[in-house]
Amino acid sequence: MTENSQPLKPGEKILFTVAGVFVVFAIIAFTIMQFVIAKSDKPIFEQKTHASLSAEGQKGSELFRVKGCTTCHRALRNGTNMGQTADLDGVGSRRTMEWMYAFLLEPEKNYGSETMDHRAGQRSAAYVALMPKEDLHAIAVFLSELKSDQGSSSAPMPPKGDSPFIDSMVKTWAPKSWHEKYTDIRDKQPQDAGGAAE
Hints:
By secondary structure, this protein is mostly helical. It has helices at about 10-35, 55-65, 95-105, 105-110, 125-130, 135-145, 165-175, 175-180, and strands at about 50, 75, 80, 145-150. Strand 2 (about 75) and strand 3 (about 80) form a beta hairpin.
């Protein structure tokens, strides 16, 4: 120490100690991520969506990218999250191909109002209806083949099995009249969700 330097005050010592501990933990976490998790073949998050594309589905997938659908939507984990229904992975478990084709033919009718560009160069949903019908059909087939597993956030059904947490919350907070009026969706068998709401 020089002649003019002052010793650290107790509060400063605590602050520097906490900051030092934080830096040490950050370095340890970074090292674990780089050398343990990154080298593992096991994915960090379980993948709950999948696609088994037919020949027309493959064509629809290509059209989806080439026609600029990925500007506002995401499918097969490619694209952006700007659209109203941004992430389309798993949409085939909620909607039928016929529903999606009808939607693509008249998107503004389904939205209930005129769509518009939000910024220069961005295509509106009305642009979709101007595409050839065979292209729209191929895109609808592609989207219908994007499936999700039960329990996925994009699936129409919750995870299989009982949930002690949900059961205790329903038992504690749901009015008794609800038990007579409503049935637990987990007790139902999965059915065609072609008309289910998104």
